[in-house]
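Table S7 (text form). Paired inputs.
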Amino acid sequence: MSNEPRATARDIAQEHLHAGDPLGWFESLYSRSAGDTSIIPWADLTVNPNLVSWLDINNSTDLGLALKVGCGLGDDAEELAKRGYSTTAFDISESAIGQCRKRFPDSFVEYVVADLFSAPSEWKARFDFVLESYTLQVLPPDLRIEAMKCICSFVSPGGILLVIARGREENEREGKMPWPLTKKELLLFEDHGLQKMTFEDYIENEEPPVRRFRATYRKAVK
């Protein structure tokens, strides 16, 4: 991937951060793209291979309601629907959701414009499977604690949360956005009624290679 799209996204993000609007840059980026997805760094227009490999290993016939957090252009949500989940996908960007609906006009996915921090109340403890991939790492660190709490709230008792993110050690610098998460940060999921089931720390063969964390959690049944 060229560094130019990532640099553009970082510039737009910084403009909004300096203006005290840490979430507004998502709509600015998607609306500026006007359908030209080449300026969106994460828009590969294909399903995330880290999700595919997890689903292949954890193949289940016990499917239910799924939620994709920060769905972007919809590829991961479409994969969940293809696998048999009744899928809802949301993004804070109205332009992103518009592009999802345009790309997948006959989709079974329910695409919703929503803010993670003020999501519909009916989503609380509703979903059997929640996917968070690459959203936390583009949020400023001071928003992550509340974001993780919100994500946990979507998981139904006995439900599963799958988290995929860039990873780093505590003593490594965060660098530029996307900001990798640490293992210590991921522990916060366990403060909100979730139990860690699996944790993987691996290098994904990208150019350059990227360190990934992939973790699954289950919410306790009261």
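Next pair, protein 2 of 2.
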Amino acid sequence: MANFINEDFLLNSDVAKKLYHLHAKALPIIDYHCHLDPRSIYEDTKFKNIVDVWLSGDHYKWRLLRANGVSEEYITGNRPDYEKFLKWAETVEILIGNPLYHWTHMELKRFFGIDSLLSRDTAEEIYALVNKKLENFSARRLIEMSNVEAICTTDDPIDTLQWHELIRKDSSMKTKVLPAFRPDKGLNIELPDFLGWIAKLAEVVGFPLDSLTAFEQAMESRVEFFHSHGCRLSDHALDFVNYEKASRDEAAFIFERALRKESLSRSEIKKYKGYVLVFLGKLYHRYGWVQQYHIGALRNVSTRMYNVLGPDTGYDMINDISFAVPLSQLLDHLDQTNELPKTIIYTLNPRDFESAITMIQAFQGEQVPGKIQFGAPWWFLDNIDGMEKHFKALGNNGLLARFVGMLTDSRSFLSYPRHEYFRRILCNFMGEQVKLGLFPSDEALLGRIVEDICYYNAKRYFDF
């Protein structure tokens, strides 16, 4: 069946078609949160075949292969690449209803010009065609083909940022590639690898971290270092929002207890994390950064498979935590001294949309439009239902027109059609609201809002 992904894919009204083709389609992409490897970008990695670029490391696809009963040897194991691809083709054939059915065919169409639906019957031909075209493609070429203006990777504070430095000096690289500060290991005081990470941080900064004062000095030095390399964002995986107000003396005592390998109570863990989040928030405010809070993932729920494969392999889920009280207290702590930085709050459970959106409206201000953002629907929510619920919830209790738009949150260089997917869904949503008489049929107004959400809001907000 040819042309499933046609020019009006997902656009179900004349208004939607005009908004997409005249206002959204040609805009550059600002991918302000992803997990691309900066070394691969600098070295302009070429890919062995479609499995290398498409299936390796993609836990979105791994989960669906397992759901289809595919043996792990065809997923993370050592079976031949074509056999792995064939298992994915057999899975895609019955993947209707899942966004990866759309993403798969959009990626085949946009990068490789393939209109055929992927299935067991078409797998051999598509595998050969894609691999032939990949001979002339590379990491940078895929970025260029996608019209990407800026990329923000996700980087540990101990990272040397050597690849970012080399990219910055490379005049042939037209896309900005900037680091983002991800200090989770410095907050997770209860985890076994905390002390090992503290030791590595001490090596990087060149002095012992034998007190909270030394730790604060080390983190500030790393923020300054990242800032000098173009970083303007931090990112925190707050699977649980741990915040309990603590004095500096309390936090110092807890830090020293951790250094002595003493067991910490749940309250002590919350106090330490709350103190450090406030310390870092004030630091971000001083440097003019944006902080991101990703809330609500329950990770590595299969102990058996975690012991075999480790983290980030597809054994995560949506959590059902309550975060309204601790998160509002955290934001309020920063806001009391007017040191709350620009903040993006992502919630993984759609049940929590309204709670998060009404919370952020209580902390807007400082003449910064959309200072506190409700983040893009991510991970399990970057589908049609998740995006439309996001638009409606934000419109009901906030300013949809100030939303900074989509991201990939991906490790794959083939993921950029997700921005197109988002733009098409946004334009179709606008068209549907016009059809219902809820939005005016005013192309100039709606077109400007679409352009802002797809590109200009992010460009102004992050100010790279």
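Residues 14-46+138-462 form a domain with the TIM Barrel fold (CATH 3.20.20.140).
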